[in-house]
């Protein structure tokens, strides 16, 4: 049976947008439960400016407090060298750089043009002692610039792969993409990068995330980011609702005939725990 991997991003993308301060011990408890569910990779931290994303300010304490399960890679976002230094000190197993396919979101999210943000990643790629993943946001729609040209997505993906990212996650940041847009985008992107190096990262604002996952599966993509409880959103992407729920992706892909190796009962419990943290 073909395997689909779900990359759990709830402790980072799921929680980063929550306004009320969530106790570090609660974040640690959520990660510890998720660590028993069968995930190979869990994104738990973000070494960004605490002025920009206050909820992630305790990322080092989260990485210090969790019980690390063997075989699980604990990931952190790193926008610049300062972030990488934090991630190394906290012993993140892998890090992720994040770029945008649209200029409007790039400016709002990291206060830099796309070219400037990619230039910040070069020293990270040189210095990182751990694997580096890449994200491209706004692969179909941008809250500031409207529809994204698939060629612009392909360009940024090619640059991240050339820099050494081991995988590039394609973000429908505001969850507005249609299956037709995802199809056109993936046609362009798979011309410059094999599907084995791609992941889908769908927010579910319009309820089309599972349809978009089906389109991505048809292009050979086998890794999908998701957040337990369907929490999430980006503070710099107005209108961004939650990530597609891990529970929903798990049920959907298993029904479609893929194996995930995940424990649905534990994930259901983690989903309840994540929703309770929302307060
Ligand atoms: P800036 O203001 O242009 O840069 O921010 P700066 O270098 O002038 O730094 C501003 C302040 O932040 C300074 O502090 C720095 O020291 C500090 P001050 O002097 O004002 O006291 N600083 C840092 N602090 C901690 N860790 C750091 C760090 N870097 C600088 N690494 C910057 C530029 C990139 C820092 C800022 O724009 C930022 O942190 N942005 C992050 C925004 C963010 O985290 N967004 C959410 C994640 S992306 C996402 O959710 C999308 C994704 O899920 C995929 C999808 O859905 O599409 C991945
Ligand atoms: Mg996201």
From TrEMBL:
GO terms for biological process: ketone body biosynthetic process; L-leucine catabolic process. Residues 4-268 form the Pyruvate carboxyltransferase domain. Keywords: Lyase, Metal-binding. GO terms for molecular function: hydroxymethylglutaryl-CoA lyase activity; metal ion binding. Pfam families: HMGL-like. The keyword Repressor does not apply. Gene3D superfamilies: Aldolase class I. It comes from the Bacteria. Belongs to the HMG-CoA lyase family. This is Hydroxymethylglutaryl-CoA lyase. It comes from Litoreibacter albidus.
């Amino acid at each position: 049976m073909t395997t689909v991997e779900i990359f759990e991003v709830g402790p980072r993308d799921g929680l980063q947008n929550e306004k009320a301060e969530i106790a570090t011990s609660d974040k640690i408890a959520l990660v510890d439960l998720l660590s028993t569910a069968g995930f190979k990779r869990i994104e738990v931290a973000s070494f960004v400016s605490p002025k920009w994303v206050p909820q992630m300010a305790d990322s080092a304490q989260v990485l210090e407090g969790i019980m690390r399960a063997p075989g699980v890679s604990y990931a952190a976002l790193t926008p610049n060298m300062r972030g990488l230094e934090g991630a190394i000190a906290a012993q993140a197993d892998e890090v992720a750089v994040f770029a945008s396919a649209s200029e409007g979101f790039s400016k709002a999210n990291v206060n830099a043009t796309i070219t400037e943000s990619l230039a910040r990643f070069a020293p990270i790629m040189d210095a990182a002692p751990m694997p580096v993943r890449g994200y491209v946001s706004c692969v179909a729609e941008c809250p500031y610039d409207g529809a994204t040209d698939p060629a612009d997505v392909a360009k940024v993906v090619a640059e991240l792969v050339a820099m050494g990212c081991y995988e590039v996650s394609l973000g429908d940041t505001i969850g507005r993409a249609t299956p037709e847009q995802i199809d056109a985008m993936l046609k362009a992107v798979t011309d410059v990068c094999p599907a084995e190096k791609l992941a889908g990262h769908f927010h579910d604002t319009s309820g089309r995330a599972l349809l978009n996952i089906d389109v991505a599966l048809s292009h050979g993509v086998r890794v999908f980011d998701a957040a337990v409880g369907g929490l999430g959103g980006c503070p710099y992407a107005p209108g961004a609702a939650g990530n597609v729920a891990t529970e929903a992706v798990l049920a959907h892909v298993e029904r479609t005939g893929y194996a995930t190796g995940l424990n649905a009962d534990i994930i259901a419990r983690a989903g309840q725990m994540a929703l309770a943290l929302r307060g």
